[in-house]
């Protein structure tokens, strides 16, 4: 199944095409330009690199938030337009799940559970994305034997003082929320927190494709697909 993945939830613009578990082509550009200035050109380049046309696609997948209001709107609008024009299904995935998927399995040390045939994580991963207004989008993940980060609970929109009590035990940290809040978190949690390299903070469309293929939940109607802002009432964005 050939899937076109779109990721524009941050200032980075990422596009990928996969065929089942095989990544055919990917392009990720991070810079000052907004995703809207790069997205469709990137789609054309990635399809050309994969030797495919739009008509060859079996579905569209998009990172629908939470994240940048403008970026999410650009990605979701493009995904809906392509899906409707091509008559293909469209699947939305969590932008925080996309970031968590950047962390390779070896970074998740596991210990055998006593009296169990399975494994349990020895640390958690927190994905933190700057949500402005002195808040972060946050989600906690655990990794099991299949190597996939598994989200525990729902995505959150929280202030730092609301987040701190949740940062228990030993944990890894990932995301651009660390630019603003990383020092405060380190000061409060000491050596329990382990920031991961900034190279892993850029969301990748290849992860969008993988998540869509692994947990396919296509929108029943293309027009029903909507951005996942978490606090859309405050953003005054309507019409979806």
Strand tally, please? 12
Total number of distinct structural domains = 2
| Overall radius of gyration | 18 Å
How much of the sequence lies in strands comes to: 25-35%
Classified by CATH, the class of the largest domain is Alpha Beta
So how many helices? 7
Short descriptors:
240 residues; alpha/beta; Nucleotidyltransferase, domain 5; five-stranded mixed sheet; 7 helices; 12 strands; 28% helix; disordered C terminus
Describe the protein's topology:
Blueprint: E1 2-7, E2 12-19, E3 22-30, H1 39-50, E4 59-63, H2 69-86, E5 90-93, H3 95-100, E6 110-112, E7 119-121, E8 124-130, E9 135-143, E10 149-159, H4 160-163, E11 171-174, H5 177-189, E12 193-195, H6 205-214, H7 232-235
Parallel strand pairs: 1-4, 4-5, 8-11, 11-12
Antiparallel strand pairs: 1-2, 2-3, 6-7, 8-9, 9-10
Describe this entry's structure for a reader.
Mean pLDDT is 85; it is low at 107-122 and 234-240. With 240 residues, the protein is α/β, with parallel strands linked by helices. The strands form 3 sheets. The chain has a 5-stranded mixed beta sheet, sandwiched between helices. It has a 5-stranded mixed beta sheet with strand order 10-9-8-11-12. Strands 6-7 form a two-stranded antiparallel sheet. The longest helix is centred in the N-terminal third of the chain and has 18 residues, at 69-86. A hairpin with a 4-residue loop joins β8 (124-130) and β9 (135-143). It is built from 7 helices and 12 strands. The chain folds into 2 domains: 2-95 and 202-235, 2-Layer Sandwich (Nucleotidyltransferase, domain 5), CATH 3.30.420.40; 103-201, ATPase, nucleotide binding domain (Nucleotidyltransferase, domain 5).
């Amino acid at each position: 199944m050939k899937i076109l993945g779109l990721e524009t939830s941050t200032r980075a613009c990422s596009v990928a095409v996969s065929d089942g578990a095989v990544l055919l082509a990917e392009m990720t550009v991070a810079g000052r330009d907004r995703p809207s200035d790069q997205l469709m050109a990137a789609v054309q380049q990635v399809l050309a690199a994969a030797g495919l046309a739009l008509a060859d696609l079996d579905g569209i997948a998009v990172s629908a938030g939470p994240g940048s209001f403008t970026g999410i709107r650009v990605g979701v609008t493009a995904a809906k337009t392509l899906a409707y024009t091509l008559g293909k299904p469209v699947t939305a995935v969590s932008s925080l799940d996309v970031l968590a998927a950047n962390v390779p399995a070896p970074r998740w040390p596991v210990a055998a559970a006593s009296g169990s045939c399975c494994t349990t994580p020895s640390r958690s991963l927190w994905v933190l994305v700057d949500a402005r207004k002195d808040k972060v989008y946050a989600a906690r993940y655990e990794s099991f034997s299949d190597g996939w980060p598994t989200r525990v609970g729902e995505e959150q929109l929280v202030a730092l003082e609301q987040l701190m009590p949740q940062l228990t035990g030993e944990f890894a940290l990932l995301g651009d929320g660390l630019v603003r809040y990383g020092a405060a978190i380190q000061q409060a949690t000491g050596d329990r927190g382990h920031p991961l390299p900034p190279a892993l903070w850029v969301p990748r469309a290849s992860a969008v494709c993988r998540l869509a293929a692994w947990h396919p939940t296509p929108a029943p109607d293309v027009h029903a697909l909507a951005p996942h802002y978490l606090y859309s009432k405050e953003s005054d964005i309507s019409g979806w």
